[in-house]
Design brief:
Elements: H1 3-27, H2 34-64, H3 67-70, H4 73-83
GO biological process, one term: negative regulation of DNA-templated transcription
Protein name: Copper-sensing transcriptional repressor CsoR
Organism: Deinococcus radiophilus
Length: 87
């Protein structure tokens, strides 16, 4: 994966980690409003989805686009289908 995508995914995962830690702290407080927890959960999901898109793009650019040259197209397709749970 290109370094720029690796760093972008890492940044997004750091954001998700921060939101997740916030959720855990919120749940320690019995006065916390449930909708606030749900908003933070959505923020984590969004950050994870964003990281996934960045990693997928890097994989497509680095591996899928060159699979035919290497002769492993079918293996790359199956691997990606399995990773995305489309198998």
């Amino acid at each position: 994966m290109p370094e720029s995508e690796r760093l972008a995914a890492r940044r997004r995962l750091s954001v998700a980690q921060g939101h997740l830690q916030s959720i855990v702290k919120m749940l320690d407080n019995p006065e916390v409003y449930c909708v606030d927890v749900l908003r933070q959960i959505k923020a984590v999901q969004g950050a994870l989805d964003g990281a996934g898109r960045v990693v997928l793009r890097g994989h497509l650019q680095s591996h899928v686009a060159t699979a035919a040259e290497r002769g492993d197209t079918e293996q790359i397709v199956e691997e990606l289908m399995h990773a995305l749970k489309y198998r």
